[in-house]
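Morning - D-ribose inputs below, output right after.
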Amino acid sequence: MKIAIGNDHTAVEMKTAVKAHLEEKGIQVTDLGTNETGSCDYPVYGEKVARAVAEGQADLGIAICGTGLGISLAANKVKGIRACVCSEPYTAKMSRLHNNCNMLCFGARVVGVEMAKMIVDTWLDTEFEGGRHQRRVDMIMEIEGR
Ligand code: RB5
């Protein structure tokens, strides 16, 4: 399993903690930055992670900004990406089970590191259910072609 991870300046510490957690689990992580705490623009990193996933360099992506909102909005502009903001494990679970999200986003100013690890673990441990949910996910993706 390969995961691409990216973040803005608000989430350097959070990203470092999540990255270490993933690596402890034996997951290969590509860190697309930023590792600087000076102010930067979250769309840059949302797009970087999204492209890594959409182009197949990573199986899944994780993107973190202050709220998770801006970076998810940017990521969702890349064709093939389904990025969700999850601030607790239930939503993280459902975002895989029903929505087959291929990017997880959250806010470093919203959740603590332990909650973030729980969100990430739940997200990675949950498989897409398919069935009627596949049709709905297909409907979402068809919007990209219109
Ligand atoms: C940066 O101040 C902040 O706007 C950003 O991290 C994010 O929360 C945007 O959605």
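Note: Helices lie at 12-24, 42-54, 69-75, 89-97, 113-125, 132-143.

O.
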